Automatic annotation (TrEMBL):
PANTHER family: MEMBRANE LIPOPROTEIN, MEMBRANE LIPOPROTEIN-RELATED. It comes from the Eukaryota. It comes from Dorcoceras hygrometricum. Keywords: Membrane, Transmembrane, Transmembrane helix. The keyword Transmembrane applies. This is Membrane lipoprotein. The chain crosses the membrane at residues 6-26.
Length: 58
């Protein structure tokens, strides 16, 4: 006996996979952005506490 998926089942499986992939990608991107922003904020705070003269552009 051969088991085969109907077109509707195949589309449903593809849709579920797409939703799960999008969700994990969104969550991973959000966490990555949060870490980058945290590092940027810390670097700005440390530069504020230790002022350096601004560089002159010619």
């Amino acid at each position: 006996m051969q088991k085969s998926f109907t077109l509707l089942q195949t589309i449903g499986i593809a849709g579920v996979f797409s939703v799960v992939s999008t969700w994990y990608g969104f969550m991973f991107g959000r966490e990555s952005a949060r870490k980058e922003l945290g590092e940027l904020i810390e670097s700005l705070r440390s530069s504020d506490s230790d002022p350096q003269p601004p560089s002159q552009h010619l």
